[in-house]
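Hi team,

As requested, here is the filled-out complex form for the adenosine-5'-diphosphate run. I kept the field names the same as last time so the parser does not choke. Let me know if anything looks off before we queue the next batch.

— J.
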Amino acid sequence: MSDSNPRLVLMGPPGAGKGTQSENIVEEYDVEHITTGDALRANKDIETEYGTPREYMEAGELVPDPVVNEIVVTALADADGFVLDGYPRNESQAEYLDSQTDLDLIALLEVGREELVHRLTGRRVDPETGENYHVEYNMPDDPEVRDRLVQRDDDTEETVQERLEVYEENTAPVIDFYEERGLVERVDGDRSPDEVWEDLDATIEVALDDG
Ligand code: ADP
Ligand code: ADP
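And here is what came back:
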């Protein structure tokens, strides 16, 4: 382990399991979970000079960089170690992040497109706790929780396809940016959540020891 808490970025396309695995990282490494998606959903209707986040999110497009960078810089100020989930999503965000902090590891969760669509269109969220479930893979036992689950506005088939395009065009190039600096480790995300976690945890351990 390095002397300060780990500074990790979890990357991967929408539906790769970033939210799910971030929870494990938080528990194991005692770091802050910084997720721009959740922060934006909690502030969907704030007026910015670019309009509201909602307009972008419901179309599956990226919210403008200044809005998102502001969220991240505020969260970083309060965090010792962190796992960033859903940020950076384009090269300009990656450069901004670079100007604010060092990173120990970029872990990239890899999952094929068909499985991503299946995961996202089947995702359901508990509005009370924010916890993610899946209609086939992972439903809550408690009937009360089951009855209150909702589908995210952007988890419809059409918006999912748009989000995957946006990922390929804007976010995939960020991986090359970090790859050149030797920071990227790939993890096969197309396995059960527990198997993915076992591999991801081992990958983080190695990166921290090397650091
Ligand atoms: P992301 O944050 O990358 O968009 P989530 O963690 O929200 O991804 O996962 C997307 C959906 O897939 C959720 O419904 C979640 O329950 C489910 N899921 C996550 N990891 C796996 C996995 N390894 N196998 C099957 N389903 C998964
Ligand atoms: P997922 O990982 O399942 O795509 P998120 O919850 O991370 O979902 O993001 C949902 C939406 O929030 C995105 O489609 C985008 O509109 C917006 N968003 C989240 N993070 C960013 C970011 N770093 N830059 C721009 N927009 C973002």
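Two things worth flagging: The chain has nine helices and seven strands. The mean pLDDT is 95.

Thanks,
J.
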